[in-house]
UniProtKB/TrEMBL annotation:
Protein name: Pyrrolo-quinoline quinone repeat domain-containing protein
Span of domain Pyrrolo-quinoline quinone repeat: 112-248
Source superkingdom: Bacteria
Pfam families the record matches: PQQ_2
Gene3D superfamilies: YVTN repeat-like/Quinoprotein amine dehydrogenase
Length: 353
């Protein structure tokens, strides 16, 4: 994950904009800012002036499509949503199911028991296949977990291989993809498969209560057991790291909920634990300190909103490099753009540089 550049010295208010209602969500792409309110979507320029606005229904969340930054994804808690153009807010594609990913010319969508590829230019369905309990898209591959089978498809829908994934899926099975392999996590077992040919690489017992898994670094995954006892490890070992060859290391993050993903910051790759706001280096050493408030990672550090105050912390420092004089409400939201900080506070959206 590439992060926007941090505002490293105390910023000043660049502009403010007041929405007709509370700001539901806001994102920035380049010098433009897109704002979702109840019933409307707005685009603002680099001075905070309105470029356009359109009416929308049922949307609660807003994001920029990672591989198509000319598209916005609007979704709601009840599922479904729409892809809209950043140029004018017009709807490009309405989606009834769950959007798995947006690629250069296609959207991969799961709906009920089907998985489909939809052409973004024409809106036509290019291919449809049987869906599954868990879907993952990584590069040029689509992985589908259904019953006790793991399937890999190419982006044109052609099946590449099928592998037996004989494990109890439980209520919330899911997959984690890394460089060269994919991990399927079920009710009490996690199994790793080679991404190219589907060969089983390793499996691990995660206990009766199951465990959570995620991407630690591009070529490593983490598995955290819910009961915090892992095979012959001590009971205070909470997270175990694996690569395609098997176990790499284990460590105690000091929290009962570990949710990490890889980020690139100051030219190096780290794992960012979103729950605690801590960076881990490739030796699994924590940088800085944990944070109690809401956090927003940026290249070189993170912004924290805690008890109405917004501060910036550099990667390896425990004290704030700066804290804004302004105070904000308990429900305020943080956002980051290139060399810019966004704060949504009620109906106000503020941009700091």
């Amino acid at each position: 994950m590439t992060l926007p550049s941090a505002v490293t010295s105390e910023p000043e208010l660049d502009w403010s904009w007041q929405a007709p209602g509370d700001v539901e969500d806001a994102v920035a792409e380049g010098e433009s800012t897109y704002v979702l309110t109840s019933g409307s979507l707005f685009a603002l320029d680099d001075s905070g002036d309105e470029l356009w606005d359109v009416e929308v229904e049922g949307a609660e969340y807003l994001s920029v499509a990672e591989l198509r930054t000319d598209l916005l994804w609007l979704s709601g808690s009840d599922g479904g949503g729409s892809l809209r153009s950043t140029e004018d807010g017009e709807e490009v594609l309405a989606i009834d199911g769950e959007l798995e990913t947006v690629l250069e010319g296609q959207a991969i969508v799961s709906d009920d028991d089907e998985l489909s590829s939809i052409n973004l230019d024409s809106g036509d369905v290019e291919w449809t296949t049987e869906g599954g309990e868990s879907i993952a898209v990584d590069g040029g591959s689509v992985f589908i977990l259904a019953d006790d089978q793991l399937r890999r498809l190419a982006l044109d829908g052609e099946e590449q291989w099928t592998a037996d994934a004989e494990l109890a899926l439980g209520d919330y099975p899911y997959m984690t993809t890394a460089d060269g392999f994919v991990v399927v996590n079920g009710e009490d077992t996690a199994i790793a498969f080679d991404g190219q040919d589907g060969e089983e690489l390793w499996s691990v017992d995660t206990g009766d209560d199951g465990g959570s898994a995620g991407l630690m670094f591009p070529d490593q995954v983490y598995i955290q057991k819910n009961d915090f006892s892992f095979e012959d490890d001590t009971e205070d070992t909470k997270v175990v790291i694996y690569d395609r060859d098997g176990r790499v290391a284990s460590f105690d993050p000091g929290t009962s909920f570990f949710y990490a993903f890889p980020v690139r910051s100051e030219g190096d790759v780290y794992a960012f634990d979103f729950g605690e706001g801590i960076l881990y280096d490739e030796e699994f050493e924590a940088l800085g300190r944990s944070h109690d408030g809401s956090v927003q990672p940026v290249d070189g550090g993170l912004y924290e909103l805690s008890e109405g105050e917004v501060s910036f912390f550099r990667n390896d420092e425990s004290s704030a490099a700066w804290t804004l004089d302004d105070e904000f409400g308990d429900d305020a939201q943080l956002g980051a753009a290139e060399d810019r900080l966004l704060i949504a506070d009620g109906s106000d959206l503020l941009s700091y540089r």
